[in-house]
């Protein structure tokens, strides 16, 4: 190991030049010179990220359970096998639960982006450690690190693109995001098992309150550490740790402020700049969010015209016009509609109870599962299945009107499903058939 001079605006510093076969550039220890890097700062970012990622993971797995993949036609991830061990019959109460869990999943995920980037910045020298493998334990740790970083980047990038409705993936988002989540969680569990005790000790090694009081002029590198996070020849600081924490925290607060409004009905919805489908569109009864338009899914006005008929099938079959449905007992409920992208809104829906239509099909609603099929010609979720609990809930409707007006074509005219606490994509629009069957399990 020799030393060579490195000149900067602040003077001349020595960096190490590896002579043992390490590639040049970032693989050399002297390449990374920030005086802020060290176990304490890394542990602070890591512990914040750990708490946040646990919440994101739990709410994400709850979202998958809400899709009821055990029901026919609802499984968007064939071959999930043991990954579905935790699935349960998704409830209809409280009606706002999916709104909260999925909103938290998306908003917290966005809020954590600056923390994730800061954490990656703090440990980036370890990604270029040389030689790559020194011992079996170190090889296991590096493998977990590669899977952890790769998994985190994949999950965050695909999730953010999905929120923006940029479907540029050469694969289906739903199975990829689910399988990616389990790979990431396995790597995270291994990494936590290996590093959590060290992270806790590092976090306790310095006072957060003291660091928040330390000015730039008084900022000093952390003591040398065995993991090599502290720079061997640190450059003069250009930012204090207080400034670094403030910068990252401010970025997270900004991300939160630009997304939280998508789950709230009110003025804050206008601030949801990161949620293009979570904002206000106008004052009319049908002027609320539309993810997929009728034209985009191949539904025309003629399809939903006077010739439209609803097929209700079960022990017997009936065909109903919209006028027939309007002549049945109608019920009105204020229910939220919440989408996987994180946006949600509460509207007032009027329609026929799914339980009443089950009786027309000759199946008691307390024993009836349901598959609703749409007129749509393109895209995913042209049908959705519902459990006995969902069919029997008196608030579960085949909606004909919203906010006192007929549904618009983009909102599912002539009829759409509204089920409390169901993901938005399961509230099937442009319904052409309701197929009831006795409970399959």
**Count of separate DSSP helical elements:** 10
Roughly how much helix do the residues carry, as a percent range?
Answer: 25-40%
Mean pLDDT: 90
Total domain units: 2
What's this, in brief?
This protein has 441 residues and is of the alpha+beta class.
Model description:
This protein is an alpha+beta fold and 441 residues long. The protein folds into 2 domains: 32-262, no CATH class; 295-438, Oxidoreductase, molybdopterin-binding domain (Sulfite Oxidase, Chain A, domain 2). 36% of the residues lie in helices and 16% in strands. The protein contains 10 helices and 12 strands. It has helices at residues 39-66, 97-111, 113-127, 136-163, 173-204, 208-213, 241-257, 322-326, 354-360, 388-392, and strands spanning 2-8, 11-17, 310-313, 317-320, 331-338, 344-353, 368-374, 383-386, 397-402, 405-406, 416-418, 431-438. The strands form 3 sheets. It has a 5-stranded mixed β-sheet with strand order 4-3-12-7-8. Strands 5, 6, 9, 10 and 11 form a 5-stranded antiparallel β-sheet that branches. A two-stranded antiparallel sheet has the order 1-2. The longest helix is centred in the middle third of the chain and has 32 residues, at 173-204. The protein starts with a strand and ends with a strand. 37% of the residues are buried. Mean pLDDT is 90; it is low at 1-19. It comes from Nonomuraea maritima. Residues 213-223 have a biased composition (Basic and acidic residues). GO terms for molecular function: oxidoreductase activity. InterPro entries: Mopterin_OxRdtase_euk, OxRdtase_Mopterin-bd_dom, OxRdtase_Mopterin-bd_sf. This is Oxidoreductase molybdopterin binding domain-containing protein.
